[in-house]
């Protein structure tokens, strides 16, 4: 099977299509009064991400350290970074949506300064996720930062 990466328009269209909905999602998760409501919001969140073509689920794009299968693609244009990501687990896909809400369309220096622990604490998710989900989430953040840094380093 040929390794077919997403094209630039997939990233930009996906970002423009989901940007406002993802920011609203983050606000809704933060405002949810209890864990059950936050969990429900996360389960719905993955539906906000653009469709991820199965051909993009390659080993090169796989997120290492994530217990669930997850894939990440990166695109850099005019000093901004865009990501497409997917997972076979609904809750992980919801967490990915929150990360993309926070990081898509930002510069490499902004991404480098991103504090995932503080971000998820601000959403009321700190301490609520299982250790394996937390590890996978931080593996995804690390991969995002690494990819953004590669493009910034001459």
Automatic annotation (TrEMBL):
It holds the Pfam family SufE. Signal peptide: none annotated. It comes from the Bacteria. Residues 29-146 form the Fe-S metabolism associated domain. Belongs to the SufE family. PANTHER family: SUFE-LIKE PROTEIN 2, CHLOROPLASTIC, SULFUR ACCEPTOR PROTEIN CSDE. This is SufE family protein.
């Amino acid at each position: 099977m040929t390794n077919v990466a997403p094209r630039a328009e997939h990233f930009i269209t996906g970002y423009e299509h989901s940007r406002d909905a993802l920011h609203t999602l983050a606000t809704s998760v933060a405002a949810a009064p209890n864990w059950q409501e936050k969990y429900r919001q996360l389960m719905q969140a993955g539906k906000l991400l653009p469709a991820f073509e199965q051909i993009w689920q390659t080993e090169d794009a796989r997120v290492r350290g994530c217990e669930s299968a997850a894939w990440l693609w990166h695109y850099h244009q005019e000093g901004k970074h865009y990501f497409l990501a997917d997972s076979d687990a609904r809750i992980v896909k919801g967490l990915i949506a929150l990360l993309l809400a926070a990081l898509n369309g930002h510069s490499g220096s902004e991404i480098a300064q991103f504090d995932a622990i503080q971000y998820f604490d601000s959403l009321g998710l700190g301490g609520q996720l299982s250790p394996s989900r937390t590890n996978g989430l931080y593996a995804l953040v690390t991969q995002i930062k690494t990819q953004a840094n590669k493009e910034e380093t001459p």
